[in-house]
Structure formats: structure tokens, C-alpha cells
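Re: weekly structure request thread

Next one in the queue (212 aa):
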Amino acid sequence: ELEIALGEDKSVIVPAFAVGRTQELIRILAENNFKGQVYLDGMGQRTTQLSLEYPSYFRSPRSFVQAVKKIHFVSDEMRRKIGRNSPAVIIATAGMVEGGPALGYMQRLSKFGGYKGFLTGFQVPGTNGRMLLEKKSVKIDGKVRNLDCEVQYFDFSAHAGKSALFSYVENINPDKVYCVHGDEKVCMDFAAALTEEGFDATAPELGKSYEA
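Done, posted below.
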């Protein structure tokens, strides 16, 4: 579906998380023999380079190396020219469009005939990514700006659900569980549910220190 959607005449901006998602998108485009120009910008450049240094973490390191060779790493001199005269796919941070080159591309290309924005990860309410998805607008320097764009969402979520996380905790049976990296209420509720099942679980408070 992603490959079909890319076969258009407009540039496509894909805001992507630097670790994991960026590399996944690079691999998918290569595996589907995408022939267009693909550019990589932002923190994803460094994480992709680091990934290449640890081939044992890939199921098929050789194919990933070949996939990376097909994309263009963006330099400062290139940035303002990309996508203005010929369609391109631009993979750039930040994944929720809260900053980084992705936000800059969206603002610039909106002035040159529009573009497509492909969101591949969960967009937290209140972020630019959620605003882009629901209203085709983003907040820049404190001001809401409408953008000339088409937006599509592709569910690439790699997060486990509640039941899978419960099974994981039960299988490893840890002495202590810290529930982090989620909405505050969700973390608190999950910690409470684990506590009811006999686990020593807590949702850490911001700024508070804990000893394992």
C-alpha cells in the first residue's frame, strides 16, 4: 500500500523516528524496488550509519547495506533544493513533526505546489503530527500554520499491547517493574494492574529518583 501511494507526481515527506522506523522504511522501499529519488535527513542519518556498524542485529545485513546505498544523505547545501523541481521521497525526523528537518520541509514545500505527508507512527494528541493528520496544520514558532498537503496514515506501530506486556512481565518475573515511555495515566494504570497481580511495579514520577 505504501509503495502504491508513492507512485504519484508530488514529493512525499515521511516524518520518521530515527531509531528503527527510519531503517524499516529504507528497507521497505528497497525491497519493493522503488525507483524514485529517496533522501534521508535529520538524526536518522546518524542512526542509520550506526546501524551499519552492527550487522549482526539484522536478519539480512547485506540487503540492508544495499538498501542504504540507494538513498541520498542530505547535506546542508542540498536541503533547500530537494523536492522543489522534481518529486522525491524525503524521510526525516522528527516522527511526530515536533521539530527537525521534517517540519522545515513541510513549511517550504507547502509554498511550491504542495506535497504528500505520510505518517507511520502514533501521533500523540497535541503534537504537530496529530494536528497535521486531523487539520493539515502545524504549529511553528507558536503560530498555527495551514499547509498545502495531502496526509495519509500507515500503521507501522511496533508497540506491544497490554496483554502482550503482561505476558512479557509474567515470563521474565522481575523483582521490580518500572512502567515508562507512555502516557502518564496509562503507565499508572498498568503499574496498578501489575501490582494487583503481585508484582512490585511503579510508574516513575518526573524528577524523582529510584533505586533498583
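The chain is about 35% helix and 15% strand. Strands lie at 12-15, 38-41, 72-73, 89-92, 115-119, 137-140, 143-146, 149-153, 177-178, 201-202.
Next request, please.
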